[in-house]
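Lab notebook: predicted structure, single chain.

Context: the supervisor wants predicted structures on file for every construct in the current expression panel, including those that have not yet been purified. This is the next one on the list. No modifications to the sequence; it matches the entry in the shared construct table.
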Amino acid sequence: MGQIIDGVSHIDADELEQILQDAERETIVIDVREPHEYIEAHIPSVPLIPMGEIAEYADELDKNSEYVFICRSGNRSYNVARYFQELGFSNVHNYDGGMLAWDKEITSGPEKMIDEFKSMDQLKRK
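Prediction complete. Output recorded below exactly as produced.
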């Protein structure tokens, strides 16, 4: 899957689309941008937990799950992926190029903004 840059797996738009379309795959995809960026445009069904808040929920996330982090350009999501690796999450990926590289379906509005994390179910695709 993708390429490894500084120890972090990076995936491209086609790989991310395959993950999102595979109903059997339980990969958790999280947008880590700011709320105003997410409301303007985001990938349908992908939840938002801003980079500045995601550390608060790290202890409640399943270290055995697979994660893909998304941001505007790939920089913030790369830093989140590295942070999660440092915490012992072994199956994390950065979406390389971020929303700037996403040329597939988008939507707008506050669809899945996580204001308070209650369970992993909030992050699962339906």
